[in-house]
UniProtKB/TrEMBL annotation:
Domain HMG box: 53-122
Any GO molecular function: structural constituent of chromatin
InterPro entries: HMG_box_dom, HMG_box_dom_sf, HMGB_plant
Listed Acidic residues bias regions: 133-149, 158-168
Family of the protein in this entry: Belongs to the HMGB family.
The protein's name in its UniProt record: High mobility group B protein 1-like isoform X1
Gene that specifies this protein: LOC111312040
Annotated Basic and acidic residues bias: 88-101, 110-126
GO BP: any one term: chromatin organization
Length: 168
DNA sequence: GCGCTGATTGTTTAG
DNA sequence: CTAAACAATCAGCGC
């Protein structure tokens, strides 16, 4: 019954291992914060991307956006973003999976769009590496009325709970 | 004046 | 598979 996002019973790894959860990973802002970057050993993330698509907000972020508004509303004095983050994280874990469904659903859609963007992004990388062809083209997300322009006029009535109905 | 830091968790990405 | 990075936010503080 439950959704089954991936393979059931797959979360063992995460619980078993979570050494890196130190939260203080140091400063992931290697971009320019400090020279923390892993000593240029093996640039993990490629170098700079021409037009790298930003990561879509995860379910938690989607919820966070909403939570931030509420939190701030009741705590207008709050001044640290960390406060919201902590509160949100606490509540987030407190929520039931069903409650996270709408958030996850939204995140899932964003992810789908993101994949499309990556397609173009990958193409560009390929072209670049090859030297660009003469005709390249950008497929650029043709369209898709899905979420991008689909809602155009419609409001955001997102009721799509239809996701992953995969069963065996 | 500008820009990073902090804190949350989830997803993403490259090796 | 794994480890690391980064996604938003916002005000405070450093240089």
């Amino acid at each position: 019954m439950k959704g089954a996002r991936g393979k059931a019973a797959g979360k063992n790894t995460a619980e078993a291992l979570k050494p890196a959860e130190d939260r203080k990973i140091g400063k992931r802002k290697a971009t320019l914060g400090k020279s923390s970057v892993p000593k240029a050993k093996k640039e993990r993330r490629a170098k700079k991307d021409p037009n790298k698509p930003k990561r879509p907000p995860s379910a938690f972020f989607v919820f966070l956006e909403e939570f931030r508004a509420t939190f701030k509303k009741e705590n207008p004095n709050v001044k640290a973003v960390s406060a919201v983050g902590k509160a949100a994280g606490e509540k987030w874990k407190s929520m039931s999976e069903e409650e996270k469904v709408p958030y996850g659903a939204k995140a899932g859609k964003r992810k789908a769009e993101y994949e499309k963007q990556m397609k173009v992004y990958n193409k560009k990388q390929e072209s670049s590496a090859n030297g660009m062809g003469d005709d390249e083209e950008d497929e650029e997300v043709h369209d898709e009325e899905d979420v991008a322009s689909g809602e155009e006029g419609q409001h955001q009535q997102e009721d799509d709970e239809e996701e992953e109905e995969d069963e065996d």
